[in-house]
Specification:
Elements (H helix, E strand, L loop, with lengths): L1 E2 L4 E6 L2 E6 L2 E7 L7 E4 L4 E5 L4 E7 L3 E7 L6 E7 L7 E10 L2 H7 L15 E8 L11 E4 L2 E3 L5 H4 L10 E2 L11 E5 L4 E2 L6 H4 L5 H11 L7 E5 L5 H10 L3 E6 L5 H7 L3 E4 L5 H7 L3 E6 L4 H4 L6 E9 L10 H7 L2 E3 L6 H14 L5 E5 L3 H9 L6 E5 L2
Parallel strand pairs: 17-18, 17-20, 18-19, 20-21, 21-22, 23-24
Antiparallel strand pairs: 1-4, 2-3, 4-7, 5-6, 6-7, 8-9, 10-11, 10-15, 10-24, 11-12, 12-16, 13-14
InterPro entries: ADH-like_C (IPR013149), ADH-like_N (IPR013154), ADH_Zn_CS (IPR002328), ER (IPR020843), GroES-like_sf (IPR011032), NAD(P)-bd_dom_sf (IPR036291)
Keywords: Metal-binding, NAD, Oxidoreductase, Zinc
GO molecular function: alcohol dehydrogenase (NAD+) activity; zinc ion binding
Length: 398
């Protein structure tokens, strides 16, 4: 596969010559013999020319503009725009978006919580195919299936990068925040942060693993808890339903904490060995009766529910807060007496995401998704904010 550098590309059809614009990709394929040449135009602007015992060229032109959902100012609405399609610069890849997850952090950007980054296209759970490479890119090639997660790039020179903690880079780039994201037909991604995605997985199902999935997967394994220990998951939403599955497949005994007896069957199907209904029982007493948790993963943004959980940790146990809840009041006595600790974890870099996807596909971890057509972006966000989505909304880009 190679890209034309000429202003136009000539194609010979019998005695006629047809030209197409530049930025077209050329494929060479061996065909079965046909008695007559057959030129075919299809809806995706691909011209196929078939001839007996000959090789043919297929030319796919890229548009000059593309559709994207953009936020023009802090607190402003999502507006569908027609934007100019730019060529990738050095170290960038141009990706045709297939799917993009809808995350609460997208609305944080929209409300201006990340500063004056406008106008901006949101979206950091991006899956698509590479259609053009910038200079110097060797990590991927045209046609590769890739992902664009929260972590969108790093300077590769600061202390964090030198330690391999790329997502903690002093000059970190964030897809959908500091650079345009995936609520669009096309997106430019930085090659060092691009995630290689298997082509045999559903883009819609894998998209949320680039944020929710890698966050819980990476957070759990970085806590270094021995297999067989009790791991409790507070909340059964977008993060929580994945945390239960990952923890189970990693070899832990899993307790799920949520409100309502009706969720017990669901939690059990996800892989929970114990279910604690926080509306009927005291989670601290229940977990303590089980011997205390080696790890409690807080995934639901409820600071009052999270605060007392340190008392349910076994000595040396860890409370991992993944839900962005703001201030949580923690009893320091619980930490001191039992040698307990409180942690957060910042998602992951490209390799972390690749490993989260690989683990999920190998062990059957499934993200429950609700697809929305590309033109339904505002509806998808509204469903997420009203807690109607089960459990991750995903824009399907056609």
């Amino acid at each position: 596969m190679k890209w034309s550098k000429t202003p136009e590309v000539p194609i010979q059809l019998g005695n006629d010559t047809v030209t197409l614009p530049a930025r077209a990709v050329s494929y060479k394929v061996r065909l079965s013999p046909l008695s007559h040449p057959v030129p075919v135009w299809n809806p995706s602007c691909i011209l196929r020319y078939t001839a007996s015992s000959h090789t043919f060229n297929s030319i796919m032109t890229l548009p000059k503009t593309y559709k994207a959902w953009q936020v023009e100012k802090a607190g402003g609405p999502l507006v569908q725009k027609e934007l100019e399609l730019k060529k990738p610069g050095p170290g960038q890849v141009l990706v045709k978006v297939l799917a993009c997850g809808v995350c609460h952090s997208d609305t944080g950007m929209q409300q201006g919580h990340f500063g004056d980054v406008f106008p901006r296209v949101p979206g950091h759970e991006i899956v698509g195919d590479v259609v053009e490479l910038g200079d110097g890119v060797t990590k991927v090639k045209n046609g590769d299936r890739v992902g664009g997660p929260w972590h969108g790039g790093h300077d590769q020179s600061c202390r964090s990068c030198q330690r391999g903690q790329f997502q903690c880079c002093d000059n970190v780039a964030i897809n959908g925040v500091s650079q345009d994201g995936g609520y669009a037909q096309y997106v430019l991604l930085r090659a060092e942060a691009v995630v290689r995605v298997p082509s045999n997985v559903d883009p819609v199902e894998v998209a949320p693993l680039l944020c929710a999935g890698v966050t819980v997967f990476n957070g759990i394994r970085k806590m270094n808890i021995e297999q067989g220990n009790l791991v409790a998951v507070q909340g059964l939403g977008g993060l929580g339903h994945l945390a239960v599955q990952y923890a189970n497949k990693m070899g832990y005994k899993v307790a799920a904490l949520s409100s309502g007896a009706s969720k017990k069957d669901f939690a059990t199907k996800l892989g929970a060995h114990e279910y604690i209904d926080s509306s009927a029982d005291d989670p601290v007493k229940k977990l303590t009766a089980l011997g205390g948790a080696a790890l409690i993963i807080a995934t639901a943004p409820n600071p009052k529910a999270i605060a007392p959980l340190t008392a349910a940790l076994q000595p040396g146990g860890k409370l991992l807060i993944l839900a962005p809840v703001g201030t949580v009041e923690i009893n320091s006595v619980d930490l001191i007496i039992g040698g307990r600790s409180v942690h957060g974890w910042p998602s992951g870099h490209a390799l972390d995401s690749e490993e989260a996807i690989d683990f999920a596909t190998t062990h059957g971890v499934k993200c429950m998704v609700e697809p929305f057509g590309f033109d339904k972006a505002t509806e998808a966000v509204e469903h997420m904010l009203s807690n109607k989505v089960r459990f991750r909304g995903v824009l399907v880009v056609e």
